[in-house]
Amino acid sequence: xxxxxxxxxxxxxxxxxxxxxxxxxxxxxxxxxxxxxxxxxxxxxxxxxxxxxxxxxxxxxxxxxxxxxxxxxxxxxxxxxxxxxxxxxxxxxxxxxxxxxxxxxxxxxxxxxxxxxxxxxxxxxxxxxxxxxxxxxxxxxxxxxxxxxxxxxxxxxxxxxxxxxxxxxxxxxxxxxxxxxxxxxxxxxxxxxxxxxxxxxxxxxxxxxxxxxxxxxxxxxxxxxxxxxxxxxxxxxxxxxxxxxxxxxxxxxxxxxxxxxxxxxxxxxxxxxxxxxxxxxxxxxxxxxxxxxxxxxxxxxxxxxxxxxxxxxxxxxxxxxxxxxxxxxxxxxxxxxxxxxxxxxxxxxxxxxxxxxxxxxxxxxxxxxxxxxxxxxxxxxxxxxxxxxxxxxxxxxxxxxxxxxxxxxxxxxxxxxxxxxxxxxxxxxxxxxxxxxxxxxxxxxxxxxxxxxxxxxxxxxxxxxxxxxxxxxxxxxxxxxxxxxxxxxxxxxxxxxxxxxxxxxxxxxxxxxxxxxxxxxxxxxxxxxxxxxxxxxxxxxxxxxxxxxxxxxxxxxxxxxxxxxxxxxxxxxxxxx
Amino acid sequence: xxxxxxxxxxxxxxxxxxxxxxxxxxxxxxxxxxxxxxxxxxxxxxxxxxxxxxxxxxxxxxxxxxxx
Lengths: 577, 68
What we know:
Chain A is α/β, with parallel strands linked by helices. In chain A, α2 crosses α10 (196-213), α5 runs parallel beside α6 and α7 (169-176) crosses α10 (196-213). In chain A, 41% of the residues lie in helices and 20% in strands. Chain A contains 22 helices and 18 strands. By secondary structure, chain B is mainly α. The longest helix of chain B has 15 residues, at 26-40. Chain B is globular and about 25 Å long. Chains A and B meet through α1 and α9 of A and α2 of B.
């Protein structure tokens, strides 16, 4: 997008919106300056990532006044320009007495609190941190405006919450360069401070936050090996000839990339290899090369062979039970990059830059695709969970019948009802689960808390077996109304499927409802392009024949008619609050 | 120009002018000048921005800058 002209962005955005389908993602921009250029630029930046966004610009200088109307929007962006806190602050601040500055700070802070209070229910707020950079004096000492900005940012930091992302405008100003980023002509004529170039960078900066809120987060990072994880070609240069250490210029960028990837893995990304090499050679590097840093179990999946990389990536996605659009593939070869782009357009493909010194910087940019809104305990454990998964697969090969295998696994589920500690994880599951998800309703933490507050049931399922703990990986939300109940949401993480846990989950859910005097249960399946695998789930679970409507299938189960599956090889414990 | 003003090209007549064409207000004027500068690789001086308030006047300014 950087290289596109403003009119070209407008043209393409209009074209995209003519053909766009799918739910609209509504963004409201509240600002005390004019941010006209942002609308089309942000809409287009999100369109590029497959989000059908509609950006609405609020009125001029009406942040607090308009903040109560944020309901109905999926995200709110706040541009609170320091220079416009009061007219001409940028040149008046240095002449203000301390009391006046304190008073200004108190007033601004209370305005910020008012706005944040009104935006408490928004699922995502992107709030720009205050900065005086645009008008900073060139002296050695910070001016009064800089101090005011710092104090306001301190205040803002004290208001941290998971749905509030504080955007550091200074980073964007540095990236773009101050001269390019500001449009002073527009500022003096129309109070429009930032340029088209600035808004392009801004849109790219905040995009990962919005994608994360839409559940469009990348999950798997797959590396080629030669000239990608290390400098050199293992098959030709040998163990001693390849370089990946900061001790020498050849290896330094690769060490940095390995560490960035390692950090991503520890925050929940799954790492893998897809390389044309002899498997034994790569194993040898992984085990014994002193400078290789991804050997603490970060590499969960490998396809080291001489086959087609597109096929290998397909297999990787299948093995991990994720969609191809969750994959990011990194390779240095133009041939492989083109091949994968051509065969698997859903996969994000990144080519290692020509000059190795550009690699870490470009890679850090790529890493933004793995941005997560909340880093829950499950994210942090994900790599190890996938490793346990592989041990299970090995066991599975030894068994020919599924039940024998499942018995051997020693499965145990724990079901928690309305546990507030699990609210973040529950919200995250509604955001991220696509395949085993009957209704695909996305909820924020506030939404989930609200269900609990109004007496509905938020039921989480955690799973353990002899290989390890899969953590909380299933969720049901049931709305109660006397003798009738409705299953609003039912979903399970793909990594726990194929173990009949869904039967146990439904059976447990029904007995919870029976205990609450429920007699009839409504349920529904709403199709998306990803949840085909559960199209007949309720039929299989014994909910009877559905009523078929255009938007999906609706079931009504009379509870006393239901046959439990009586699975005896999964132990169940229930925790109620 | 029709791109900026979000209207059909035929609505922008040869004598279109600031104020006369309803969508040509001060904020859209700002967007228009930004787009023109980018499109033709030129920059307008402050006074030229104030001057460029009709299609013939814009053509005149662009001609002065060597754009036919």
